[in-house]
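Entry 14. Ran structure prediction on the chain below.
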Amino acid sequence: MLRSSIDLGTNTCLLLVADWDSSRAEVTRIVSDHARVVRLGQGVDQARKLHPDAKARTLACLRDYAAIVRQAGLDPARTVAVATSQARDAQDGLQFFSEIERETGFRFRTLSGDEEAQGTFRGGLLPGADPTGSVVIDIGGGSTELMALKGGQSLDIGSVRFTERYLKSDPVGPDEVAMAQQAVDAELRKLLPWRRELGPRAQLVGVAGTCTTLAQWLLGLREFDARAVDGTVLGREQVARQVETLRSLPVAERRKLPGVGEGRADVLLAGALILWRSMELLDFQDVRISTRGLRFGVLALQSGA
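Output, structure tokens:
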């Protein structure tokens, strides 16, 4: 059965059109997979309202996505469309999603942190992965989800949120990074009892823009290639070195790094810092990268699988 889903996050808007096998509860063929940086969460951490420019960017993107969905022979109203952290934080989120429905036909549902974490776990695993031994981390613009079969948590630490809150200089100063790291560590320590229950053999799986961008950079890929990125392994010390490199570079120089570019360069340091500290504090030696994520998982959640 051909189906479509949208994951509207704080920084990106993702559209998936795929064949879905309800008996196996999995995607059997990806028809098309689209990503665009819309930065809907611009300024939400402080203002608690959606910025007019961010709403305009997002609406333009969703108009294009509605056309893609219709071209695939699907109804935008039947697309599984979910919003995450920025929608939970913005006071005017409901009004904006009503406007989106009028303009595009997409009917958005705002996920709770727990729902986001569960959907990310189910959707992030690559085919053949063992769910019992996996821990999925999704570093979003507004929040970070860490999830395993034994549960997990959504934390209000994200690449856009922490860039706007702490990493304001260009290039970023060491004091700013130290403050951001202290705040990240304080949140991650809440998960230490959960981590101990998982045991030493748990494998960390990284999904979403921060993780896939760091993998592209490591591989030297100027153009995104999901087949090359899927399964790439980043060691903890490699991520630490990437954090230090990003800290030393102004945003204009970060844009020149393979796979980084516009829309990700200014917030990648915060995302990489969150990944590195997650690996350090929660004791993961490496992270295996997956280009899948919430947009895959919500298909399973909607089907009741």
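Residues 2-110 form a domain with the Nucleotidyltransferase; domain 5 fold (CATH 3.30.420.40). Will compare against last week's run tomorrow.
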